[in-house]
Design goal:
PqqC (chains A, B); homodimer; Pyrroloquinoline-quinone synthase (chains A, B); mainly alpha; Heme Oxygenase, Chain A; EC 1.3.3.11 (chains A, B)
Chain lengths: 241, 241
Amino acid sequence: MTEMMSPDQLEAALRAVGAARYHDKHPFQVRLNAGDLNRDQVRAWALNRYYYQSRIPLKDAALLARLEDPALRRAWRQRIVDHDGETEGDGGIERWLRLTDALGFARDYVIAAHHILPGTRYAVDAYVHFVRERSLLEAVASSLTEMFSPGAIKNRVAGMLANYDFVSKEALAYFDKRLTQAPRDADFALDYVKREARRPEQQQAVIAALTFKCDTLWAQLDALHHAYVEPGHIPPGAWQP
Amino acid sequence: MTEMMSPDQLEAALRAVGAARYHDKHPFQVRLNAGDLNRDQVRAWALNRYYYQSRIPLKDAALLARLEDPALRRAWRQRIVDHDGETEGDGGIERWLRLTDALGFARDYVIAAHHILPGTRYAVDAYVHFVRERSLLEAVASSLTEMFSPGAIKNRVAGMLANYDFVSKEALAYFDKRLTQAPRDADFALDYVKREARRPEQQQAVIAALTFKCDTLWAQLDALHHAYVEPGHIPPGAWQP
């Protein structure tokens, strides 16, 4: 029988999941930050991760559609604004496309996502389905990877700027914005799960949801590593450098 | 503008998808058949593929739930009988568990599927979601990988029996049954799509559905290959040999 944790114990358990499983420890991410990838490998990362970025507002809209409280909806709605922008040419998805622009991809090619890795697509879609199908508490908890992203972003941006002459500060503008957006979102979601997980099994479901989300990020990098770092393993139909 | 194909041209296009993308050409499958995997790698394959087997009747039930015609339902229902059996201890899932038994896994461990690769889970779940969410025609078409399985199964069984002293004919009983079940199922589904795809875009959707399904099988082997053939890449939480 699992014991009830205090809210702070729950937070500590969530931070332990991040320490063990957040994708900043994935070999592909370590190589990306250290400058050990070539331009085509960085291109593959940006191309595939666009699909993740593009699904985030759909995930957030699916969650928004289940929030009964206008105050919660107002808070959650900001995530969609951040990704989609106030006007054409604004927002996180647009900023990601500036990165793929800088890496030489045509926008239509990136947006169509026909040639991303199947492993990317399945991992990202698994996240969207999780948010649609699980409890609201688990859906909110699955967003808690934002707790760990500011530190990872700082390392990533510093590493990429230091190590890749084909990546500029402007091309990485997406991450600058996330440094302020992610902590605000993470604080909100963390307060929510600490308050709303009122039974031991709910607390365990919150931890499992964050673990699941870490796995979806990790699996995206597994797919990239297998296809574009190990030679000869690009699956049929995926982008060929 | 895509032109309408004759039913036989559609069949030829579907066979071309299999020739290019069916997973018998995946490096992991080639190694499995050739005896180039060690026992732990074969164990990883059997453990992970159990999850695929376990989801197939759920996928078929989701499809059955959308078939309006009793005659079609009677035909499709047989797939569920084949996997679940007439009685306890019968059926394809049970036969797969005899393989994991023979490879030294506890049944509870296999059935819980807590330690399969996330990449396996996402690929399999992607297939189940596809069948639930797409048109009936696409759902039926996604089963057409059965067209290519008898040849692949013959090679796999012969290769595994010749090359692995830890695999017996009894442990591979699953595949014996599939040699008669798969062609019957494939003939039914192929007749269905040749008859029901009445517009060029429906024919293209049928081809895309089979391509999608091939990708889900390929991605499962990508995940296995990355985790258990390349050293040092087992993701957090997955089975450790």
